[in-house]
Amino acid sequence: MQSMKKIEYPTTVQGMYEHLKARIGKIVPDAELRLKSELAVEINQLKKQKNAVILGHNYMEAALFNSIPDYVGDSLGLSRIAAESTADRIVFCGVRFMAETAKILNPSRMVLLPAEVAGCSLAASITAEDVRNLKAKYPGVPVVTYINTYADVKAETDVCCTSSNAVDIVNKLDSDTVICLPDEFLAKNVARETGKRVITPSEAVQDDFRKAMIVWDGRCEVHEQFTVEDIRNARAQFPETVVIAHPECPPEVVLESDFSGSTTAIVNYVKKSEAQKFLILTECSMADNIAAENPEKEMLGLCSVRCPHMNEITLEDTLKCLQEDIWQIELEEELRVKAKRSLDRMLELS
User: Fold this and answer.
1) d(C-alpha 138, C-alpha 112), whole Å
2) Does a structural domain hold residue 75?
3) pLDDT tens, the chain, 350 aa long
4) Which of 65, 136, 229, 293 could disulfide-link 60, Cβ–Cβ 3.0 to 4.6 Å?
5) Element containing residue 57 per DSSP (H, E)
């Protein structure tokens, strides 16, 4: 699924239908596949006419993910592609903070988000003022901010991170204390791996925050729903199941799992594993996309947690945004430049 090589698709409706049928025919009704095939071919024709590149996050619904993105992957991989793209238009099939990141890194290109909103509960959990207040309370302490944030928060940040490089970036900083924002669970999981104790701004005493990770109370509305009980119930029914959790899951869920990693790490783990049955504790569409890539392996159908924000991105709206050049991402230049520093630093350290 993580692909830095441009993906090519069938150019006819029948060819696209057969392609989708082979990959996702077990999870998407046939009538829907025929409709989606027509939309996908029209989008792929239009993106060539308009010199557009389409980026697809791993959480996109299966019909879209397997039919139109030129490149697919996680936030870090797609950020690199966005930064290097020479296309006239970058269509980001993800949520708003991802499209903002593309605009920050490549301001001369038109960046389109195929939805009017496509927000993020985690990104909405913190503001630029919150970051400024933390920096005032802990002067000199570096701020590491998850890429799942909006541009104004990135502008107040020393370095961004993703779930795939957070531990590495924290380890590379010359500081025994780090402010890690805004995902509480990701920060706690990173703190465990980097040997730091966790404190919150309300608990911390200003002269006693050495060798600590100061965390915010933001959470992903999808990942916070997974529980240890989910894992134990699955293992009771299917003892051979390998359980994989995204690091945005609660720490106790991550500890109970067999493996935890970014979406790309999860993809690679499933691909290389000799196991045949998996429970993927992350956004549900990703399990569908992994199943399409690994047809000989089984993803347990126990996940019912769909991100409502990712779900706003559809083939229909992708076509509309390309036809009309609507839902463009625009940022004030001063803000963009400030935000870019934290992203550049992330790419340097990755």
Assistant:
1) 37
2) yes
3) 444 789 999 999 999 999 999 999 998 999 999 999 999 999 999 999 999 999 999 999 999 999 999 999 988 889 889 999 999 999 999 999 999 999 999 999 999 999 999 999 999 999 999 999 999 988 899 999 999 999 999 999 999 999 989 999 999 998 999 999 999 999 999 999 999 988 887 775 555 667 789 999 999 999 999 999 999 999 999 999 999 999 999 999 999 999 999 998 999 999 999 999 999 999 989 988 998 999 999 988 656 678 999 999 999 999 999 999 999 999 999 999 999 999 999 989 97
4) 65
5) strand 52-57
Sequence-separated contacts (24+) of 229-238 with Cβ below 8 Å: 230/281, 230/302, 231/256, 231/257, 231/279, 231/281, 232/256, 234/279, 234/300, 234/302, 238/277, 238/300
Structure tokens at 161: 């991170």
User: Both 40 and 106 in a single domain?
Assistant: yes
Coil, strand or helix: which one is 213?
Answer: strand
Q: Which of 67, 103, 60, 108 is nearest to 82 (CA)?
A: 103
Range of the domain at 249: 223-299
Contact 208, 241 (CB under 8 A): no
Q: Is residue 8 part of a domain?
A: no
Strand order in the sheet with 71-73: 71-73, 52-57, 89-93, 110-112
Q: Are residues 233 and 191 in the same domain?
A: no
- Residue 134 domain flag: yes
Query: What are the tokens at 292?
Result: 């399409």
- Say if residue 135 is in the same domain as residue 212: yes
Whether 173 and 114 share a structural domain: no
Q: Is 227 found in the same domain as 215?
A: no
189 and 240 both lie in a single domain: no
Tokens matching residue 129: 């003022």
In this prediction the pTM is 0.91
Say if 320 falls within a structural domain: yes
With 0-12 CB in 10 A as exposed, 13-18 as middle and 19+ as buried, what is 288? buried
In the block, tokens 């500081």 appear at 175
User: Which DSSP symbol is given to 242?
Assistant: E
Residue by residue, DSSP assigns 298-350 as EE-TT-----TTGGG--HHHHHHHHHHT-SB----HHHHHHHHHHHHHHHHH-
